[in-house]
UniProtKB/TrEMBL annotation:
The lineage of its organism: Bacteria, Pseudomonadati, Pseudomonadota, Alphaproteobacteria, Hyphomicrobiales. Residues 20-439 form the DUF112 domain. This is Tripartite tricarboxylate transporter TctA. The keyword DNA repair does not apply. Pfam families: TctA. Keywords: Membrane, Transmembrane, Transmembrane helix. The chain crosses the membrane at residues 20-53, 109-135, 147-164, 317-338, 358-381, 393-426, 471-489.
Length: 501
């Protein structure tokens, strides 16, 4: 009952006219960027961070959450009509969705994706409402050594989740940890990695790093591939947008099963949306009575993965809000948004900023309703966005990024940092190094350092304090297993195969 009361207070905040406007702006922007190939919610939130610097925290975070949900919705449109996923989590949708569009059933494919997203998003947000406060209560009992161990788990899992290899992920994380060291050491008062530049003594701004790494780096990467990627053919929507009775019959169970995959996997520290979408697709292919249609346009192959995709978005918010751990690129940028307003996601957030966090959760229900209303009637508008020339699009992103950083800080040093870090991000993309661990390392690195120092001070400098706490010892064991377990497993597999040969 207490949770319902808190949710009611959050709903009262979310339905305020300005917050409703922020939610509407967020879902429209999110859907638009989800439709555009190569531009995801993470880039959009990063671009908006400098502009929202002096805005109301609740309104800004509500808008960012709307962008996150809208981006998950919009990615299905590109996957189905262009066979080019706007988000990596929409890859599976393209397998069957584009075949349906080529067969003249693009309307039902878009409809089952939109309705499935609404059903999954609503159920997952309800689960977030129920489980997040309990997890926050458990996390309140954490000591500094427990928090440090939790940060190590986050570092390992984020490095392993993003990128093509653990080594590349850990290298990107090391870059982020180094960026987090810039500035004055709060314990000793010594300047670190400031190179005599007064503007760097306060440390790097998260907004500057986020804009440079996600927006500027991506724009440079696209510009370097001129002529490499031809514009795809957009399938016309023929026939009705509405689903038949048979389509409904074949879709409702995949929606529920996709939700069951998406939310718990998204809530894991090493979660994400890609794994549940592939699991959902494989499950529907195995359970379907129309297995012969898979590969030729089976509606179950669109309904299940899209539901899993959107349920995982709500699941991602569980570790972000309760533990302060981002498990996706967009969640990492949203963590930067919280810190922009001196709000630290974690168990105490539900106590110190209850109005903000419950207003955010309540706004997710509203954003879901807005998206189902906007997506299908305005599908023609979303399709027209696909015709925007890439040079205009990414040129506008660079201008928007520069103006946003100057408006927030008004410093040429910050603008220079955007250029330098943008070039770094461009090089990392060219050599297949993930970007998200850089932002995660920069945000969580100083927090991990503070918790480690605090734990060692309390223990009189004894490092064994990290193993004396059962929670810390368990989390460190999880980190070690996550880091070395897959390597040992693959080595064991190779040895067994060699013995068989």
């Amino acid at each position: 009952m207490e949770t319902l009361g808190l949710l009611g207070n959050g709903l009262a905040i979310a339905v305020q006219p300005m917050n409703l406007l922020f939610a509407l702006i967020g879902v429209i922007l999110g859907t638009a960027v989800g439709v555009l190939p190569g531009i995801g919610p993470a880039m959009t939130v990063a671009l908006l961070l400098p502009i929202t610097f002096k805005m109301d925290p609740a309104g800004s975070l509500i808008m960012f959450a709307g962008i996150y949900y809208g981006g998950m919705y919009g990615g299905s449109t590109t996957s189905i009509l262009l066979n080019t996923p706007g988000e990596s989590a929409s890859i599976v949708t393209a397998l069957e969705g584009n075949r349906m569009a080529k067969a003249g059933r693009g309307g039902p494919a878009l409809a089952t994706a939109a309705i499935g997203s609404f059903v999954a998003g609503t159920i997952a947000t309800a689960l977030l409402t129920v489980f997040a406060p309990y997890l926050a209560e458990v996390a309140i009992a954490f000591g500094p050594e427990d928090y440090f161990a939790l940060m190590l788990v986050a570092f390992v899992t984020v490095s392993a989740t993003f990128g093509s290899s653990r080594l590349r992920g850990l290298t990107s994380l090391a870059v982020g940890l180094a960026l987090g060291l810039v500035g004055i050491d709060k314990l000793t008062g010594q300047a670190r990695l400031a190179f005599g530049i007064p503007d760097l003594l306060d440390g790097l701004e998260v907004t500057t790093v986020a804009v440079a790494m996600f927006a500027v780096g991506e724009a440079m990467a696209v510009a370097s591939q001129k002529g490499a990627a031809a514009e795809g053919h957009v399938e016309a929507i023929r026939g009705s947008l509405w689903m038949t009775k048979e389509d409904w019959k074949r879709s409702w169970m995949p929606w529920l099963r996709g939700t069951a995959f998406g939310f718990p996997i998204g809530a894991l520290p090493a979660g994400g949306a890609e794994v549940p979408t592939f699991l959902s697709y494989a499950t529907e292919k195995r359970l379907s009575k129309h297995r012969q249609e898979f590969g030729h346009g089976a509606i179950e192959g669109v309904a299940g993965p899209e539901a899993a995709n959107n349920a995982s978005a709500a699941g991602t918010l569980v570790p972000l809000l309760t533990l302060g751990i981002p498990t996706s690129a967009t969640a990492a940028i949203m963590l930067a948004g919280f810190q922009q307003y001196n709000l630290q996601p974690g168990p105490l957030l539900f106590v110190t900023s209850a109005d903000v966090v419950w207003g955010l959760i309540a706004s997710l229900f509203i954003a879901n309703a807005m998206l189902i209303v906007l997506n299908l009637p305005l599908v023609g508008l979303w399709v027209k966005l696909l015709s925007i020339p890439r040079p205009w699009l990414y040129g506008g992103i660079l201008v928007f990024a520069a103006v946003g950083v100057l408006a927030a800080k008004g410093s040429l040093v910050e603008l220079t940092l955007v250029l330098v870090l943008g070039l770094l991000a461009f090089g990392m993309r060219r050599f297949d190094y993930p970007i998200a661990p850089v932002v995660v390392g920069m945000i969580l690195g100083p927090m991990a350092e503070t918790q480690l120092r605090r734990a060692l001070q309390i223990a009189g400098g004894d490092p064994m304090v990290l193993l004396q706490s059962p929670i810390a010892a368990s989390l460190l064991a999880v980190a070690v297993i996550a880091l070395f377990g897959p390597l040992l497993w693959s080595r064991l597999g190779w040895r067994m195969k060699a013995d068989e040969d």
